[in-house]
Amino acid sequence: MRTFIALDLPNELIEQVADLSRQLSSMVRGRFVARSTYHVTLAFLGEISEAEARRVMDVLDTACAHAAAIRLVPDGLGIYGKPVDATLLLKLAHGRDLMNLAMAVREELRAQGVSYDEKAFDPHVTLARRARVLPQALSDLVFPAESSSNSVTLYKSELSQEGATYKPLYTAHLG
Ligand code: 3AM
């Protein structure tokens, strides 16, 4: 199964990100993602076996055992890729607790021998894919307020013609 580990967004932040997304959708062409899929990826694992998935559940328990709720502080828009065909992101500030949690999850994955994509952690919420982003077209945006996440989830990602659907397999609570 194709999997990743992500911080979940609290409802008030989901509402505000959806509102930002609505504002952007009148300024940017692209495939805006469904609000039900908003998350902050901490580690992308790719294909793992059932046995590895069970070890990842232990990873979440260990990494989250002593962690408090994590502050999520919006920090403007960003893109991956070329502006004419980009992934459009809500960037998040690199707060100490957030960075430490991602590091703890990744360290624990290594300790359990589960491999993951080792690109540096860059906290964000994906808003749209295949987006054509012309910065001069963006104006007067209302950004989400800071908020806190209380849980980390192992997700299974199923790809189809309509895009990816994410199914929670296991959640560990923070705080
Ligand atoms: O948090 P976001 O939406 O940026 O881009 C994919 C998504 O991240 C990322 O994993 C999350 C759930 O699909 N992803 C997909 N394939 C990936 C890969 N090969 C990947 N991240 C790193 N390497």
UniProtKB/TrEMBL annotation:
Keywords linked to the UniProt accession: Hydrolase, Ligase
Catalytic residues of the enzyme: H39, H124
A GO term, aspect molecular function: ligase activity
The reaction(s) this protein catalyses: a 3'-end 2',3'-cyclophospho-ribonucleotide-RNA + H2O = a 3'-end 2'-phospho-ribonucleotide-RNA + H(+)
Motif (HXTX 1): 39-42
Origin superkingdom: Bacteria
Pfam families found in the cross-reference section: LigT_PEase
Chain ranges for the short sequence motif HXTX 2 as given in the UniProt record: 124-127
Domain Phosphoesterase HXTX: 7-82, 96-157
E.C. number: 3.1.4.58
InterPro entries named among the record's database cross-references: Cyclic_Pdiesterase (IPR009097), Phosphoesterase_HXTX (IPR014051), RNA_CPDase (IPR004175)
Function: Hydrolyzes RNA 2',3'-cyclic phosphodiester to an RNA 2'-phosphomonoester.
Family membership: Belongs to the 2H phosphoesterase superfamily. ThpR family.
This protein's name: RNA 2',3'-cyclic phosphodiesterase
Biological source species: Collinsella tanakaei YIT 12063
Organism ancestry: Bacteria, Bacillati, Actinomycetota, Coriobacteriia, Coriobacteriales
